[in-house]
Amino acid sequence: MFIKSTEKADTQGSTLILPCVSIGNVPQLAADLLINTLEATRIGIIHTDTLLPISSSTSGFDHSKQQLVPAEIYQSKDSRWTILQQRAPPLPKRQKRWAQELKEFIELAGFHKVVLLTSSDAALRADKLIDNESNIWTLTVNCKSELVGGMQSLALSPSDGQNGVESLHSAGVAKPLLRLCQDMQLPVVVLAALVYEGDNVPDAINLANATNRMLDILPATQQWRAPMSWQWLMAPSNVPGQLF
Predict the structure, then answer these.
(1) Which helix (H) or strand (E) is 106 found in, with range?
(2) The whole model's pTM is what?
């Protein structure tokens, strides 16, 4: 259930950028870059019992004083871009329920377009993707042909239909959500980063760049602004105690 934190929240006609919790947490890191660079504000949360229950104070390691929860909704100042930042994975055997809740949220919110960010295990990629220099490939569901052509012009490799869905590995909620979107004829664009686990910051920047190129969110010369919490990504022993 979507709970607004401000009456100014307006999702009608906005584009939803939805990162899946998947291998390397690359989509969450890309969403961090988008949220911080856009200076997006939190307009609400999704209250659910399908995700691992977590809560954290941002005091001491970020500028925001809000309490972090598993699923948060951020929006740009002009309301064009809405970003769902998922900070915890679904509980065991609840992934399909989470996909259903996301589908219902998308329907009720009235989004103009949905862009799904995910990552897939590069070790299990199909042979045809081995020579993909950008390591980003796209999947479209119920989208117009001109959009697919546009992605080709951006050097993003397109795939379409059920075969593309089945090519996703370790991609979190992406598969069940895409199947639901296919059934309800909801247009969705997927950007999938082919990655290995490790230091995935370069993969996140690559995915954020691809998202920006496709949607034209920010000027090409704009530098990404990472959140302060990124300084502890590869140094867990130095994470401040107030985080927990």
Answers:
(1) helix 95-109
(2) 0.85
Of 220, 216, 204, 34, residue with least CA distance to 136: 204
Taking only the tens place, the pLDDT of each residue in 71-91 is 999 999 999 999 999 989 999
Give strand pairing partners of 121: 195
Pairing of strands 67-68, 113-121: unpaired
> Residues 129-166: pLDDT tens digits?
566 666 888 887 777 654 554 555 454 554 544 455 66
Strands 15-19 and 113-121: parallel
Distance CA 12, CA 167 (A): 32
Torsion angle of alpha carbons 21, 22, 24, 28, nearest 10°?
A: -30
Tokens of 204: 């996140």
